[in-house]
Description:
9 strands; about 35% strand
Amino acid sequence: MIPHVRPIALALVLASAPAAAETLVAPKVLIFDADQATQQRDAVVLAARRYATFWNTGDPTYARAALADGFVDETPPPGRVQGPSGPLLASEGFRKAVPDLTCEVEQMIVAGDRAVLHLHLRGHFTGSFEGRQGRGEPVAFIATDIYRVVDGRIAANWHIEDNLTLLRQLGAVPAP
């Protein structure tokens, strides 16, 4: 065994999650440190699932439950405001182009106060984006997020999206 490496457990379903979490987006694969305190792990998982459900539904209730009041986007795109308002406005704007956006959590890795998520977002371009009107074109792209959770809420987020694929699908960037 490698020194300073703890065993990792793999779970497809987190049985000890609160009952209310059943309506939240669940990760297809959940990987966590088996030595981590259950209460801390569950708090990180719950915050991440609430935030994924926000992106899946567009319902701001989930974002408000997931994000700390002092939430910091560590990798904001130009012009995005800080705090919970930033993601709320981003989702609202994105849903104008892709109203049926869904978000699946392909993988979630939890260690300490962090969660890393591999997300797959899908929908149809039926709205408008930068003066272009969608005609129902399918949209599918991936994102990776890293959350730092404090007191059960996401205090910071680092994220990267496959924006080139997205912009090509929205017709904003020509395909090669």
